[in-house]
Write a structure and sequence with these properties.
By secondary structure, the chain is an all-alpha fold. It has helices at residues 39-85, 91-99, 104-128, 130-156, 164-169, 173-183, 185-194, 207-215. Helix content is 66%, strand content 0%. It is elongated, with a radius of gyration of 43 Å. It starts with 38 loop residues before the first helix and ends with a helix.
Length: 219
């Protein structure tokens, strides 16, 4: 009969045993089985993951944009409070004083700023108050066109008593156009634009010939 040697290292007081019986057999451990995805399932899963990533990126971008707007609003608020703290009663008072300053350093700074960002500032004013900009442009442009028109009319009218033969002998289309553009640059540009379809301006090489009939209206 087989002899079993007792293991002296086993402590019977702390060691537990479990006896299996036919009524209570050992339980089988669950085995993990890898799921085999088809190509269509893989494509659908990938599409879903990409869509979720795009949604997360869009949400993060919106959050960053909102925070940036909040920071800009806070900076703007601090700047407006700073204007009042500096002694100006309103933003309008500050802007007027800034435009009419006689300090050379401040004036040079403002001139550089307007030279670089003047177009952007005017567009911002037009978006906020189009009626103000339209009224100002109409008034300013009208006076400018009137002044240039008078100069152009005086140039195109022949001197009193000049013979027709002399006028024709000295007549030069190139000279007239060069002189007209020098005397009335804004008016000549305006006449060229209103005398033809703006979509065809880039295709026409004889814009000067198109402008001549309009310029002749001042003679």
């Amino acid at each position: 009969m087989a002899q079993f040697k007792r293991n002296e290292n086993i402590d019977l007081n702390t060691t537990s045993f479990h006896i299996y019986t036919p009524q209570e057999p050992p339980k089988k451990r669950a085995q993990l089985v890898a799921w085999q995805f088809t190509a269509s399932e893989m494509a659908a899963e990938q599409t879903c993951l990409v869509s979720e990533r795009k949604s997360q990126d869009a949400a993060a971008a919106q959050t960053a944009l909102r925070r940036a707007h909040e920071e800009h609003a806070a900076h703007l608020g601090n700047a407006l409070h700073g204007i009042k703290d500096a002694g100006f009663g309103s933003l309008a008072e500050f802007l007027v004083e800034m435009m009419h300053t006689t300090d050379q350093q401040h004036s040079a700074h403002i001139s550089r700023t307007l030279g670089t960002h003047g177009q952007q500032l005017l567009e911002g004013i037009h978006i906020r108050q189009p009626g103000i900009t339209n009224s100002w442009v109409t008034s300013t442009a009208s006076q400018l066109l009137i002044n240039e028109g008078k100069k152009l009319a005086a140039f195109l009218h022949p001197p009193s008593g000049q013979e027709v033969s002399e006028l024709l002998s000295n007549w030069s289309l190139e000279r007239i156009l060069v002189k007209a553009k020098k005397l009335a640059p804004t008016l000549c540009t305006f006449l060229c634009h209103v005398s033809m379809d703006p979509r065809l301006i880039s295709e026409r090489r004889d814009l000067d010939l198109v402008c001549i009939p309009c310029i002749r209206l001042f003679t």
